[in-house]
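User: Batch of two.

Assistant: Item 1 of 2:
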Amino acid sequence: MKIFSIVSKKVSYLVALSALVLIGCPVGFVLADGLKYYGNGISLATFLDNLETVTWVVFVFIVVMCFIIAGVIFLTAQGDPAKVKAARSAVLWGIIGVLVGILAFSAELIMRTALGV
């Protein structure tokens, strides 16, 4: 069991590092795009649109990772009722997260349309 915990920690660190890289790249692109136009007077609306795009990319990445983790929990459950229950809970919360995220982005679009922005 000691080896399993060491491998588990290494995998956890690798997943965390790759998540930071995958999340950091879009954020860097938004900042670089904003800096590119900074001399020409980038507008706040353009910056917020870029930030919204990055937020959506990060959201999708987190959702995909959530469902992958839930799938791994299902695969490693081996019929253990507690692990199967935890995996079902992870899938349920993943679906709830997707619905909340879509609702948040939809609400923003509805407000923009209503205000004519």
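Item 2 of 2:
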Amino acid sequence: MMQRNDNEVTEDKVTLPPVVLINVFEVPIEKGSAFVEWWKQSSEALKKEAGFIDAKLHRSLQPGARFQFINIAHWETAESLELARTKNQEVLQSLTPGRGTPALYEITAQY
């Protein structure tokens, strides 16, 4: 696992900033509504899990964009996300109207 370098140390305890899940989705334009319903169902399951912070689904303003939807979610740790994914495999694997490409990120700069 990648070591993150922007730790905050308080009372001999290291607090890591949350991890950012960015998942880009290729969804046929005619399947957009079905995809949003799947995302809402998946999010309802995941938001109940330990370590979940928040999630937002973004939709492209360009109808021809390769990635019509982008999900950005924050989790306390990569481990909490992995546990939530394992526990909710059935709903996550029920995606039929598209294909996602998820990856974890850390914030390296902000303004």
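The mean pLDDT is 88.
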